[in-house]
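Handout, section 3.2

Students often ask what a structure token actually looks like in practice. Rather than define it abstractly, here is a full record for Protein kish. The first block is the sequence as you would receive it.
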Amino acid sequence: MSSAIFNFQSLLTVILLLICTCAYIRSLAPSLLDKNKTGLLGIFWKCARIGERKSPYVAVCCVVMAFSILFVQ
């Protein structure tokens, strides 16, 4: 993951995957992420909120990123 920090497209991919994964986990087990709203583990709760509230934008970004990875590189 340290190499993803230096490559911008890899960093965006990791962030999108984190947002989608957290939103999926929260849809299955909300209590897992809701009990940690602050601190270091609060990052996962915030990613889940972004995934829930901005889901159309996140979905478009995922499709664009997939197209970019499959056909541009």
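Discussion prompt for tutorial groups: Helices lie at 2-6, 8-28, 30-34, 42-53, 55-72. How would you have guessed this from the sequence alone?
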